[in-house]
Amino acid sequence: MKFANEVRAGNIIKVGRDLWLVLKADYYRAARKEATVEMKLKNIDTGNTTATVYKLDDKLDEVRLDKKPIQFLYKVNDTYSFMDQENFEQFDINKEDLGNSIYFIKEDDMLDMMFYEGRPLNVELPNAIDLKITYTENGVRGDTSGKVMKPATLETGLEVSVPMFCDIDDVIRVDTATLEYKERVKGK
Q: Of 83, 87, 107, 132, which residue is the least packed, with the fewest Cβ within 10 Å?
């Protein structure tokens, strides 16, 4: 059992008899309402998607999966190709099935893939990943009051808000659950 606030994109949960891949999990803390988790789920068997809302303390059945080391090889259109590092077999996964994981994988990355009954489901991500900024506007000089942010595009195509002091070619740490800037990484 897992609480709803512990569920991340890429997890597999069981609702009733169906297995669901969590494509997106957004956490909301409202001032006058109870905090919730909005999830976008994809049925593993049918491919149907649905959106649902859980309270943070709702308990969900998590499915145990097999983990195997894999390598991300390349992307063609909306198909991502991987290679199993144990038997060197190659397999493809559709962009939709990977959810937000697509923003955190780069060619030749060594990753862990989650399998259910021999079928590849999703990439297991760490809590944060370091990515390089490929485009952002220059900060406006003197605009340093408060927490001033600007948009930035990262090497994987993810767009995040970063502080004004971040520039092109800076490496930043991004939270894989919230898709938000955490900190600038020094020395990379």
A: 87
